[in-house]
Design a protein that fits this description.
Blueprint lengths: L15 H11 L3 H7 L4 H9 L6 H10 L16
Helix pairs in contact: 2-3
């Protein structure tokens, strides 16, 4: 019998440059982006500087909240204006 453990999916790495680019294109300051994701300014600064790895979930949420990406395949073809 095969043992099932709690295996996590591979972590998708997000570069600090990609996070910074997404924030700038959405028109937010570091402080505004941090408040939107409910993290401290220092945490956001550490993500953008590369000191701490950016959580994929935070990046995905930023893209959803700013309208760059909609959740799920059912939303393909839709966009905000």
């Amino acid at each position: 019998m095969k043992r099932c453990g709690n295996r996590r999916k591979p972590f998708k790495r997000i570069s600090p440059d990609k996070l910074r680019e997404t924030r700038i294109l959405s028109g937010f300051s570091k402080k505004e982006a941090a408040e939107m994701l409910q993290v401290t300014y220092r945490t956001w600064h550490n993500w953008e500087s590369g000191r701490i790895q950016v959580p994929y979930a935070a990046f995905k949420l930023l893209r959803i909240l700013t309208g760059y990406e909609l959740p799920g395949d059912a939303w393909k073809g839709f966009w905000f204006s």
